[in-house]
Specification:
Length: 345
Amino acid sequence: MFQFIVRFLLIVACSTSGYFIAHQDHNPVVSLVGLASGLLIALFVIQIEQVIRKLSLRVIFGGVIGTVIGLLIAFLFAYGLRLIPSWEEQKVVPWEYFYILLTFVLGYLGLVLGSKKSEEFHLSGISLTRGERGSVNYRIVDTSVIIDGRIADVCDTGFIEGTLTVPRFVLDELQQIADSSNSMKRSRGRRGLDILNRMQKSDGVRIDIIDTDFPKINSVDAKLVALAKRVNGKIITNDYNLNKVAELQGIKILNVNELANALKPLVLPGEVMAVRIIKDGKEPGQGVAYLDDGTMVIVDNGGKYISKNAQVVVTSVLQTTAGRMIFSNMKEVIPDRKVAEPVGK
């Protein structure tokens, strides 16, 4: 509401100013033109304000510095040419016009280069927002790991500290998923935005949203790899395909699935565990059970004990990037009245 009032006052002030400036000639047509001009200027300023809102403070600061430097160079260059006697005598170009041309050209170049190169200063270890200099360990967060949500739990435990980098194109992808017409995608996207908001409020972690983009690259995964190459950073993900593509190009991957697998209790062949068989396996006579952490347990000769608790003997463990599978044989059925025994007992 406050923002609407401020914009309304800006429109009224600019329109009124344009009207009274043009009204000095006491010509109604000119006065209306001044009113319209003031209105257009106000709308133009509001559009610029909306664009600036989307930019980070680092980009704005770099653009201002670049513009000031460009204008200073234009002034010095034009002033130096004016001191050359032959320039004034030959009247090649009037000094005033040449100075205006230099001001626009170098001011524009300073604005564009300053806003773009400010990101490279930050990515090289010079942070314009924090005012500190040094080596930065970049950990770039993927869309899939934000939606997954486990990274927020890891941050809350304090095992991950410092700064996590979220590129603007990842945030845009999250927003597109959240605005999807598919209800399932929409809920996943909104969950990802909630997870990111939760991580921003975490005490030990700082979320740094950067505007670095690669317009010629369409895929978000390819952009993540390109960004990691530029800043020599690591990608935090649980996407299997991105994991393999990045590793082939020498990018360090922090896979949340691998972290979860590493934290699972170690199960050795010969151990006895209590499970509940819930469905048939792919092979005849096989049953399938799951541990509390989601690990799949394949039970030979367990197909006829579906919906029953059983003790099984571990025969082998298969570890993959996607997860872990435990193969076992039936030992005995546990009556429902008995409490399932813990692993290893």
